[in-house]
Specification:
With about 700 residues, this protein is an alpha/beta fold. The chain folds into four domains: about 100 residues, Nucleic acid-binding proteins (OB fold (Dihydrolipoamide Acetyltransferase, E2P), Beta Barrel); about 110 residues, no CATH class; about 180 residues, Rossmann fold (3-Layer(aba) Sandwich), CATH 3.40.50; about 160 residues, P-loop containing nucleotide triphosphate hydrolases (Rossmann fold). Helices cover about 35% and strands about 20% of the residues. The strands form four sheets. The protein has a seven-stranded parallel beta sheet, with helices on both faces. It has a six-stranded parallel beta sheet with strand order 16-21-20-17-19-18, with helices on both faces. Helix 10 packs antiparallel against helix 12. The longest helix has 25 residues. The two termini are about 25 Å apart. It binds adenosine-5'-diphosphate (ADP) and magnesium ion. The site of magnesium ion has 4 residues, from helix 12.
Length: about 700
C-alpha cells in the first residue's frame, strides 16, 4: 500500500482545509485512509423515480422538475418557510423547507432540481407536497453516476450531510489509485470477494442495482470484504504472537507424581471427569519445554481450585515455586485457608502475601515457601521469588493483561494458568484470548441443585423477611448483599450499614454480622470463620464476597439494589449459594429499573448457565465492554463487530492459519506482510527480530 497516498492528512484533501479537518478529527478521521474506512451508517434508497403524475400520496419518491415558482413565507411565530413549486410537465409538486433561508440563494425560478422525500397531499388536499425534501441541483451534477443509493454518514456539529458526502467522494477519487490489495488473488477468488478497491468504492458509492437491505445491514459483499480484512489481519497477528511464544524456552515439568498421588488420596471427594480431563491437559502442557499459556474456563462452582492446586503441586514437586494471585483479599484469605487444609500432611510450605499479610516476603525470596497465595501485592517491585515456575491467576477478568505479565516476569518464562468463571464466547476466545490455549470445565460436581431465582418488588419486602426467617429455622444461612458500604450520592440507596442495623432490630434472635472492604483483614477473617462455622446466621455484605467465597451451608442470597449490579457480578454472587445439599434461593430486590437493568435481571432469572449469561451480557453491553478489548492491547476494530461477524471471524482464522502453515514468515506475501505490520503498528511486535 502506498503509504504516502493513503496517509495524506485529510486537511490537504481538495475541499477540506484546516477548519473542516478539525471537525473531521472529532469523527476520528485524520487521514484519507481514515475517511475510506469511515462507513456510512445507513443508505437511502432514492431509486423510486416517478413522474409527478404517477406519484401516489404517501410514497417516498424521487421526482425531477424545474422550479416554476419560489417564495419565502414568514409565519406569525417568525418561522421562515421556503416554498417551491416544481413541474415536470405531468403535474405540480410543492416543496417546503423550514428555516433554511439560505436556500433563497441557491434555488431560483427555472432551476432544475431533483427532490427526494415522502410525498403527501397538503392540508387542503389540493397539492402534492414534500416537507423538507432532500434536493440535488441537476445542472450541477456533472457526475454521470448520479447516485440512486445515497450513503448517510454520522455527522458532527458544523458539518452537513451534503458536505460530508462530497468530502467522502473526493477522498475516494484521490485515494483510488493508491488502494492496493493486501490479499492474494487466490484467496480473493476462493472466498468470492470483490477486490479491495471495488469494495471500498462501492461502500461509499453503491451501484444502482445493489441490495439496499444488505447494505444497511453492513452485510453486502463490499462490507464483508473489508470486515474480513480486519479480522484476517487481526488473526494473522495473534497467530504470529502465539507462534513466537512457542519458540521461547520455558520449563519442562516432569513430576514423579508422589505428591500428586497423596493429594488426590486426601481429597474428600472424587474428581469430576471434567476435572480429570482438564488436569491431564494442563500436566501435558506443563511437560512441554515451551511456556504454558493456558486459560481455564469453568462456571462458578465447577471446582477450578482443585485443578489449580494440582498444577501448582506438579511445579512444586519439580522443585519450583508456584504463585496464585486472586483479585481480592477475602478471596486470597479463603484460598489460603482452603488450600492449607487440602494440603494438610503434605510437605508443602504455604504463605499468604497481601497488603495486610506482608511481613514474610523474605521467605519468598529465600525459597523457604513453595506455594504463595496473594493479591496484587504479589506483583509489587520488592517481591522476589527464588524460582517461580508456575503462575496461576484466579478470576482473570479482574486483572488486566499488564498485571498478568508483571507476575509472569517474577520468574523466567514460568508457565501460566489463568482461570475465569466468566465464560468466554468463541469470538473472544479467538481474539482477545487468541494466543491462549483453552481448557474447559464443563461439568459441575454431582449433587448441585438448581438455584431458584426471583425478583421481588420493594413493596413486598415482607416476603423476603419471611423467607430469611424460614431459611434459618430450617438450618440454612443467609447472605444479604448491598452494592455500597456507605450512603453515597444517591439518596435512595440503602447502605449496607443501615440494612444491617435494620435487620438486627427485625431479627434479634439471630446472630448477624456486617462485612465490607474497609474492615481490617483480621476482622473479616474472624467474621468469615464464624460464618463458616455456622455461628453467624445472616451475613450482610458488600460485594467483597462476590468472587470465590465458599460456604456450602449458605442457602439464601438476597441482593439489594440488584439493578446496580452487572450480569457477571449477579451470576458470581448467586454462585455463593447452591454449593451444598440443600436447595438454594436467590432473591433480587431492585429499586429503580432501567430498560437495561430489566434485561439483566430477566437474564439472571431465566438462565443458570454462565455461558448463556455471558452471551446475554454481550448482547446487552457489547463484547468490547465485557472483555476489555480496548484494554487488551489489540488493534482497534473499525468495521468488524465481534458479535455480528462471528462467521467471518471463523473463516478469517482458518485462512490465517493456512497461510502461516504454508509460509510462517509471510516471505511469499510481501504486500500482506507490509499491511500486517502497519495494522499492528504500535501494538505488538509480531515478527521476531531474530
Ligand atoms: P470455582 O470453580 O467457582 O472456583 P471451587 O474450586 O471454589 O469452584 O469449588 C467449589 C466447591 O466445590 C468447593 O467447595 C469445592 O471443595 C467443591 N468441589 C470441587 N470439586 C469437587 C468435586 N469433584 N466433587 C465435589 N465437590 C467438589
Ligand atoms: Mg474460584
Amino acid at each position: 500500500m502506498n503509504v504516502h497516498g493513503l496517509n495524506l492528512p485529510i486537511q490537504y484533501l481538495k475541499g477540506v482545509g484546516p477548519k473542516r479537518a478539525n471537525l473531521l478529527k472529532r469523527l476520528g478521521i485524520e487521514t484519507v485512509k481514515d475517511a475510506l474506512y469511515y462507513l456510512p451508517t445507513q443508505y437511502e434508497d432514492r431509486r423510486n423515480k416517478k413522474t409527478i403524475f404517477d406519484i401516489t400520496p404517501g410514497e417516498i419518491v424521487t421526482a425531477e422538475g424545474s422550479i416554476v415558482q419560489i417564495n419565502e413565507i414568514k409565519t406569525r411565530t417568525n418561522l421562515s418557510i421556503i416554498e417551491a413549486i416544481i413541474s415536470d410537465g405531468t403535474g405540480f409538486l410543492k416543496a417546503k423547507w423550514f428555516n433554511q433561508t439560505y436556500l433563497k440563494k441557491i434555488l431560483r425560478e427555472k432551476t432544475k432540481i431533483k427532490l427526494f422525500g415522502k410525498a403527501q397531499l397538503d392540508y387542503r388536499g389540493n397539492y402534492l407536497e414534500i416537507l423538507n425534501p432532500e434536493y440535488e441541483l441537476v445542472e450541477h451534477n456533472l457526475n454521470a453516476q448520479t447516485q440512486d443509493i445515497v450513503p448517510i454518514y454520522r455527522l458532527t456539529e458544523g458539518l452537513s450531510q451534503k458536505q460530508m458526502q462530497s468530502i467522502m467522494q473526493s477522498a475516494l477519487e484521490f485515494a483510488f489509485p493508491y488502494i492496493e490489495d493486501p490479499l492474494p488473488e487466490k484467496l480473493i477468488k476462493k472466498l468470492n470477494f470483490p477486490y479491495l478497491r471495488e469494495a471500498i468504492k462501492c461502500i461509499h458509492i453503491p451501484p444502482n442495482d445493489a441490495d439496499i437491505k444488505l447494505l444497511n445491514e453492513k452485510n453486502s459483499d463490499f462490507h464483508r470484504r473489508i470486515i474480513f480484512d480486519e479480522l484476517f489481519f487481526l488473526q494473522l497477528g495473534i497467530l504470529l504472537i502465539k507462534q513466537n511464544r512457542l519458540c521461547e524456552k520455558g520449563i519442562s515439568f516432569n513430576p514423579k507424581g508422589n505428591l500428586l498421588r497423596k493429594f488426590f488420596e486426601n481429597l474428600p471427594f472424587k474428581l469430576t471427569s471434567a476435572q480429570k480431563t482438564v488436569i491431564n491437559e494442563i500436566l501435558e502442557d506443563m511437560k512441554k519445554p515451551t511456556p504454558m499459556n493456558r486459560l481455564l474456563q469453568g462456571d462458578v462452582g465447577s471446582g477450578k481450585t482443585v485443578v489449580a492446586v494440582t498444577a501448582m503441586l506438579a511445579a512444586i514437586e519439580c522443585g519450583y515455586q508456584a504463585a496464585l494471585m486472586a483479585p481480592t483479599e477475602i478471596l486470597a484469605e479463603q484460598h489460603y485457608l482452603n488450600i492449607s487444609s487440602m494440603l494438610k500432611g503434605l510437605p508443602v510450605n504455604i504463605l499468604i502475601h497481601t497488603s495486610s499479610y506482608n511481613k514474610h516476603s523474605n521467605l519468598i525470596s529465600s525459597g523457604a515457601v513453595d506455594l504463595i497465595i496473594g493479591t496484587h501485592a504479589l506483583i509489587q517491585e520488592n517481591i522476589r521469588f527464588k524460582n517461580l515456575g508456575l503462575v496461576v491467576i484466579d478470576e482473570q477478568h479482574r486483572f488486566g493483561v499488564i498485571q498478568r505479565a508483571m507476575l509472569k516476569k517474577k520468574g523466567l518464562n514460568p508457565d501460566t494458568l489463568v482461570m475465569t468463571a466468566t465464560p468466554i464466547p468463541r469470538t473472544m476466545a479467538l481474539t482477545v484470548y487468541g494466543d491462549l490455549d483453552c481448557s474447559i470445565l464443563d461439568e459441575l460436581p454431582a449433587g448441585r441443585k438448581p438455584i431458584l431465582t426471583k425478583v421481588v418488588e420493594p413493596n413486598n419486602k415482607k416476603i423476603i423477611y419471611k423467607m430469611i426467617d424460614e431459611e434459618i429455622k430450617s438450618g440454612g444461612q443467609v447472605y444479604i448483599v448491598y452494592p455500597l458500604i456507605e450512603e453515597s450520592e444517591a439518596m435512595d440507596l440503602k447502605s449496607a450499614t443501615q440494612g444491617y442495623e435494620a435487620l438486627k432490630r427485625l431479627f434479634p434472635q439471630y446472630k448477624i454480622a456486617l462485612i465490607h472492604g474497609k474492615m481490617s483483614a483480621k476482622q473479616r477473617e474472624e467474621i468469615m470463620k464464624d460464618f463458616r462455622k455456622g455461628d453467624i446466621q445472616i451475613l450482610v455484605a458488600t460485594t467483597v464476597i462476590e468472587v470465590g467465597v465458599d460456604v456450602p451451608n449458605a442457602t439464601l442470597m438476597v441482593i439489594i439494589n440488584a439493578e446496580r449490579f452487572g450480569l457477571a457480578q449477579l451470576h458470581q454472587l448467586r454462585g455463593r449459594v447452591g454449593r451444598g445439599e440443600r436447595p438454594s434461593k436467590c432473591i433480587l430486590l431492585p429499586y429503580k429499573l432501567t430498560e437495561e437493568a430489566k434485561l439483566r435481571l430477566r437474564a439472571i432469572v431465566n438462565y443458570s448457565d454462565g455461558f448463556k449469561i455471558a452471551e446475554e451480557d454481550m448482547k446487552i453491553r457489547g463484547p468490547g465492554e465485557l472483555f476489555g478489548v480496548k484494554q487488551s492491547g489489540m488493534p482497534d476494530l473499525k468495521v468488524a463487530d465481534l458479535m455480528k461477524d462471528q462467521a467471518l471471524l471463523e473463516v478469517a482464522r482458518k485462512e490465517a492459519e493456512k497461510i502461516l502453515y504454508e509460509d510462517r514468515n509471510l516471505k511469499l506475501y510481501p504486500k500482506m506482510r507490509a499491511y500486517l505490520e502497519d495494522f499492528w503498528k504500535g501494538k505488538a511486535e509480531i515478527f521476531m527480530t531474530a
